[in-house]
Amino acid sequence: MESLTLLELNKRIASLVTTPATQNVWVTAELSDVSVRGGHCYMELLQKDPSTGSTLAKARAAIWANNFRVIRSDFYAATGQDFATGLKVMVRVSVSMHPVYGMSMVINAVNPDYTMGDILRRRKEMLARLEAEGIADINKSLCWPEPPLRIAVISSPEAAGYGDFMNQISSNNLRLRFSIKLFPAIMQGDRTAQSVISALNAIEAEQADWDGVVIIRGGGATSDLLGFEDYSLAAKVATFPLPIIVGIGHERDVTILDYIACTRVKTPTAAAEWLILQGKTALDRLNYLGQEIGLTAMQYLSGCKEQLSQLEGRIPTLPFAAVDRAKAKIDRYAATLQQLAFKRMQPQMSRLDTLASTLAMASHNTIERRRSKLDALAQLLDALSPQATLRRGYSITRHEGRAVTSADSVPQGAMLTTTLAEGTIISVKQ
Question: Helix (H, G, I), strand (E, B), or coil: what is residue 423?
Fold first, then answer.
């Protein structure tokens, strides 16, 4: 049976592979297993099913050192990030077949606009969805209290950005006292979004204790920030009931959270500076109000002093003037009262004169009638009195002051007193 050597087979494959159709071809793929060794960059290019995420195709690729330095520099300048796993790229490749090392793809150019475009496209889709659901501006519309001093911080405890934030807050020249609590979270990688959401849920459970939230992370490659480009995290931040400051990365770094959070700053240090500025603004306002209150009080006191000085000069004459005014007023009232009294009393006095004459006549007649009646009663009383009876020859006998009506009621030897019309007789019963 006729056979080929491996070298001959590889040469046949090389002759088939190395054609114009496989040279300098632009290919879109996702990077995986990126590593740099000896100045060369090695990676794996993947194509995944958009619906299932399963791998449809993959191939090893490399950028040789003579091109890698320039390609890497240009890509970083355009995108702000280095080659890293997870990025979607458009690369120009040439396929070659080496008799010893086999087939390989050599990358000789990269289109950075494609990578940035993919990130921006996904971000625009998420922002459009948030706006369609009516929640994109909820957190942005919240107002910070004046000043915000109770701050919940979401960051990795080991992150340099968190250290910078705390140093800036604790060493502020205004000596503002902030109440800070760290809610730790993973700030890089596939678990970033869920970790930050969990921290936000923990803060929301005790939201009455906090004035606002700070989400901070130090700078890094743009690929390190891809974990924040997540719809669930964006929706959570957009609808969070407390105002949120986002300070992720450097000045050039942007994530979807920067578009929906209440406040966006460049860096973690800038987040601390923003909070300190709010405290300074509140202090300045208090100082201004204090000065205004002091100035108003001084002006008021000055006016009072001037008024007192005027009153002091008028005090000696005020009592006399007041008395004169009171006297004049009393005289006017007296004259008016006298006139009114005379007008009202004149008819009453005439009526009293008439009543006096009538009363005198009526009194005389009444007295005469009563006198005649008394005379008649006196005559009747005189006729019915015991004295009149005695004058008619009767007498009254008493024993111990009581009238005797029966001889049997008086014991033998009792002393009796008999009253006559004229005189009294003392006797003893035998």
Answer: coil
pLDDT mean over 99-116: 82
How far out from the chain centre does Cα 211 lie? Answer: 11
Q: Is 292 exposed, middle or buried (0-12, 13-18, 19+ CB in 10 A)?
A: exposed
pLDDT of 288 above 80:
yes
Full DSSP string of 382-398:
HHHSHHHHHHTT--EEE
Check: CB of residue 247 under 8 Å from CB of residue 213. no
* 150-155: strand order across its sheet: 179-184, 150-155, 212-217, 244-248, 263-264
Beta carbons within 8 Å of 96's beta carbon, 6+ residues apart: 14, 17, 18, 103, 104, 105, 106
16-68 pLDDT per residue, tens: 777 777 888 999 898 888 899 999 999 999 988 877 878 899 888 999 999 99
| pLDDT score at 184 | 94
Which residue type occupies 73? S
Cα dist from 180 to 70, 146, 174, whole Å: 45, 16, 17
pLDDT digits (tens, 9 = 90+) for 243-260: 999 988 766 678 888 889
Query: Residue 405: what are its φ and ψ, rounded to 5°?
Result: -110, -10
Per cent of the chain over pLDDT 90 is 25
Residue 84: in which H helix or E strand, if any?
none
Q: How many CB atoms lie within 10 A of CB 32?
A: 15
Q: What is the DSSP string of 164-178?
A: HHHHHHHT-TT----
At 114 the pLDDT is 79
Residue 180 C-alpha from the chain's centroid: 20
CA dihedral 165→166→169→172, nearest 10 degrees, is: -110
Q: What's the confidence (pLDDT) of residue 224?
A: 65
* Torsions phi, psi for 161 (to 5 deg): -60, -40
Burial 305-325 (b: 16+ CB within 10 A, else e): eeeeeeeeeeeeeeeeeeeee
pTM value?
0.51
Q: What is the SS3 assignment for 425?
A: strand
Note the pLDDT tens digit of each residue in 314-335: 777 777 778 888 888 888 888 8
Rounded Cα distance between 20 and 172, Å, is: 65
